[in-house]
Amino acid sequence: MTSAGRRLPIRVGAVCFLNARPLTWALDRQPAHWQVRYDLPSACARLLHAGDVDLGLIPSVEYLERPDYRFVPGVGIGSRGPIASVAIYTRRETQDIRSIALDTSSRTSVALVKVLCARRFGIAPIFTPHAPSLEAMLAGADAALVIGDPALEIDPVALGVRKIDLGDEWTALTGLPFVYAAWTGRPGAVEQTDVAALQRAQAEGVQAVAAIAAEYAGTRVAARPLAEAYLRDNVRYGMGPEEIAGLQLFLDWAADLGAGTARRAVTFY
Question: Does the reported pTM lie above 0.85?
Fold first, then answer.
């Protein structure tokens, strides 16, 4: 038991993508304290909403779904500029896109597409959910949103498509970083000692990106340097004042487009 009567281990829902691994690398080595379950971002959110996990590394827009949710301070998965793993692929010019097939693995990426269409691209396409298969998506739509590890493995030149990096487009629009996912939970889910442990885990994971990239690549020799460069150069870990400002702006604009029930301020444990 903890001092508040909360049982250990803490049930944690974590994203199964490479970019989340630096946040969970150290947690896996503390099974008495953290019981980590890996799923797609959308599944992590459903588990947290249902109370089946205590804390979720969930898409940031899911914060709007519950009025009592809190973020763990100082920890997050973001970018300032190109993220590489969240992108629209198309054979058309942006202004000519009339339909977008959406990978629904994360509601944050879907909301980001809608925000950028409205505020940066000046288009109002039809959105259709679709499994993340680029060729099948583009067979039925002008463009396709693909996220996570599948996006990292797409070679747009080989496929004859143009890649629109959504992290790059967000920063070009706002001048701010973007936060894709963060540890989120209800009041009392974690104590301050747990918050400090999650912050230390992030720091340890950032220092271990070479080992994490090797784990991800396995026997695919060429994938290792690409994965390491992605974790070092594209993904931005942490949540400082600029990340908070970018997160708040995104949540406000997403709420205006119907995500959640209303705008709400970013709050922390």
Answer: yes
